[in-house]
Amino acid sequence: PAYPPKGHFSPNVQRTVMLSLFLGLFMGVGLVLGLDYLDQTLRTPEHVERYVGLETLSAMPKFTEDNARVLRESFQSLRTAMILASRGEKCQVAMVTSAVPAEGKTTIAFNLAKVFATGGHKVLLIDADLRKPRIHRIIKTKNVRGLTSVVLGERRASEVMHNVPDVPNLEVITSGPLPPNPPELFGKLTFKGLLDEARKEYDWVLIDTPPVASVTDPVMCAQVCDLVLLVAQYGSTRRKVIREAVKTLNRTGTPIAGAVLNQIDIERDHYYYSGYYNYYRYGYYGYQPNQPTKPTKKAG
Question: Are the CB atoms for 176 and 148 separated by under 8 Å?
Fold first, then answer.
């Protein structure tokens, strides 16, 4: 005879819950690993440290009218990090480069020089990008004479100096006429002699060079520098390319101070960067815009 069931046959709640947990965990882990595999760029300082092996000295957001103050604080943070990296080592000559073009290395070099100068340091900025120089456009001057003129013995350094308006402690040497074989200039004794003289006259010498993965110019230049600063653009360059650039720079024996994560899209990674940038936006002491101040009570 058939016996009546003592409980319902379906659904099996325990089995359904276990399968749901297993499938949810599997899909979540698979989604994270899949996104990480598909996106091989750098988006956070942790990515720079984990995949490239460099410390992130500063994170630079995209420039807008709203985050101008945040950007200024970021450059001041970078200046402090560079000073700490050079402490006790007598490091004065720092080379600024990147792995590939269009990562913002020239903008970083120029603004870092300005921040050093406004902080009281005497700074010399040299445009050693003898492929696509841009600093002469930033300071709005002609590029008739410059670094190549000094290295080839045609001019003295004092004859090719440019002053930057409103920044009295900053002087600039533009690239000058582009040579047919730029790497040879960085190996000349006159280039090394220029840096030796600059060490005596300036507190900091910043050199803007071409990207490492494109040409050999920065490798030659790094050998006579004290520090290297690597610029990496947020969500742009693949990690493998940046790692290869770091390996190439390590062969020169010049210490890499760290990396700058540039052009961060705060809107896209709002969850990660919102607290970090709000800290600077509203100040250390909790200042809020348009907040009325409370009257203080008089003693007694």
Answer: yes
Look-up of token digits 């325990």: 14
Half-sphere exposure of 204 (CA within 13 A, CB side): 31
**Both tokens of residue 36?**
């990480």
Residue 148's closest CA among 132, 160, 134, 135?
A: 160
**What is the chain's Cα-based Rg?**
26
C-alpha span between 17 and 20 (Å, rounded): 5
Place of tokens 């040409």: 215
Higher pLDDT, 29 or 48: 48
Helix 68-86 to helix 105-118 angle (10° resolution) is: 80
Cα–Cα distance for residue pair 34/172, rounded to 1 Å: 47
Reported confidence tier of residue 277, pLDDT bands at 50, 70, 90? low
Mean pLDDT over all residues of the chain?
86
Residue 33, judged by CB atoms within 10 A of its CB (0-12, 13-18, 19+), counts as exposed
| Tens of pLDDT, residues 53-89 | 999 999 998 887 777 888 888 999 999 999 998 876 6
Give CA torsion, residues 79, 150, 143, 68, to 10 deg.
0
Which candidate, 23, 13, 9, 60, places its Cα nearest to that of 233?
Answer: 60
pLDDT at position 298, please? 43
Report the C-alpha gap between 86 and 283 in whole angstroms.
28
pLDDT at 224 exceeding the cut of 80: yes
**How many whole angstroms separate alpha carbon 179 and alpha carbon 168?**
30
Cis peptide before 11 (omega within 30 of 0): yes
Tokens standing for 231?
């610029």
